[in-house]
Amino acid sequence: MTDDTQKSLEFSTDTCPDKTASDTAVQSHDNTLNSPNFEPGFAKRAIEAILFAAGTPVPVGKLADALGLDINTVENLCDELARDCETRGIQLLSLGDRRQLCTKEEFEPYIKSALGMRTPGGLSQSALEVLAIIAYNQPTTRVFIEQVRGTDSSYALNTLIERGLIECVGKLDVPGKPNLYATTPDFLRCFGISSLDELPDIDALRVTDEAGSPDEPL
User: Fold this and answer.
1) Under DSSP, is residue 101 helix (H, G, I), strand (E, B) or coil?
2) I want to staple 185 with a disulfide (CB 3.0 to 4.6 A). Which of 71, 91, 95, 194 is the partner?
3) pLDDT digits (tens, 9 = 90+) for 149-196
4) Residue by residue, what is the 3-state secondary structure of 116-130?
């Protein structure tokens, strides 16, 4: 072996990446991601970035896991972020145990004009009836819905699923195992509420309806 060859081999060995050092760097990066020692401002910005990238409601628990923080801390940071958004064109919505960043309603016309978006058609009366039955009785089956309405509700169910307002959340443990339907976070967002607890009391609605009905002729 010549001296030049020997020097070449020594050079190659010295410049070869150290696998152990590389693994250590990767591990260090992973530990940084899950470190509970985030300063609050950085953690809040991280939450904003995650929600912006997601574009859909994200469970608070998933945010907490990603940041290595407890759920209460993440909820408080989300509350702070929501207040920060009060003077901006976006808002942070609380949808049950999920959070979502979205634009404010007042800017809808400008967004649609700039992006060439069309407003989808409204829900039919039958779809609204089915949605109300599910909202107040979830999770529930198509059979129950049709018993209440007295008519086939397949089309209305499919429409609500396509709109993302309801979803199948399991099957009822009876013969035939029918699907169980429940509302989604999009349902909360569309109706401007944070949880199902904010739905109007159905008995109060019934009383209001009776009080508002016209008197029968004498």
Assistant:
1) strand
2) 95
3) 999 999 999 999 999 999 999 999 989 899 999 999 889 888 888 888
4) CCCCCCCCCHHHHHH
